[in-house]
Write a structure and sequence with these properties.
Number of domains: 1
Order of helices and strands: HHHHHH
CATH topology: Four Helix Bundle (Hemerythrin (Met), subunit A)
Structural class: mainly alpha
Helix content: over 70%
Number of strands: 0
Largest sheet: none
CATH superfamily: nmb1532 protein domain like
Distance between the termini: 29 Å
Oligomer: single chain
């Protein structure tokens, strides 16, 4: 698959997880039960798929190629996108801490989890829009065939060696299970 299309397709799954998070947030806010296992699965998806896999491929493979030969506005945009990745990691870290608190106090959990989850959703929605409409457009226009081939091979190796063989498919299973429950 074309590497930029691969990233774009991953955005679709990440956006699906954002909608699931919104549904979980609504239930939590309204005092309806949400299984802690589902919350953990959702956060696992964010950590492993959205961040480790997707953002990892961008930060370690796509962004360096684009920055190397890039024009000033691309370099500035990439720096902003990386900063947003870091900000998103902070929200996810806070969600993980909230899950740990759930064992002790449901109220503390709800406040911390929902607040950070909402911030994460807002951040990622606009972040994905920037990547889809600006960065990926530029990448499709400016990357050569050899750079695209390099990215394609790099993505395959990244998923196999960093994410682990078969883990990508398992993460797809997680999100589709949650989709069936919350959407």
């Amino acid at each position: 698959m074309h590497p930029i299309e691969d990233l774009s397709k991953e955005h679709g799954l990440i956006k699906l997880m954002l909608r699931i998070l919104e549904s979980m947030n609504d239930k939590i806010t309204n005092g309806q039960p949400v299984a802690v296992e589902d919350i953990i699965s959702g956060v696992t998806f964010l950590k492993e798929f959205a961040d480790k896999c997707h953002h990892g491929k961008e930060e370690n493979l796509l962004f360096p190629i684009m920055k190397k030969d890039g024009i000033k506005k691309e370099v500035e945009l990439i720096d902003i996108l990386v900063a947003e990745h870091v900000q998103g990691r902070g929200y996810v870290r806070n969600m993980v801490e909230a899950i740990d608190k759930k064992e002790k106090s449901g109220k503390e959990f709800a406040d911390v989890f929902v607040s950070n989850s909402k911030n994460y959703v807002a951040l990622l929605d606009q972040h994905i829009n920037k990547e889809n409409t600006i960065l990926f457009f530029e990448a499709r226009q400016s990357l050569s065939e050899s750079q695209l081939k390099e990215l394609e091979g790099g993505f395959e190796n990244f998923e196999k060696n960093i994410i682990g063989a078969g883990r990508h498919k398992e993460l797809h299973g997680i999100i589709h299970k949650l989709e069936g429950i919350y959407l």
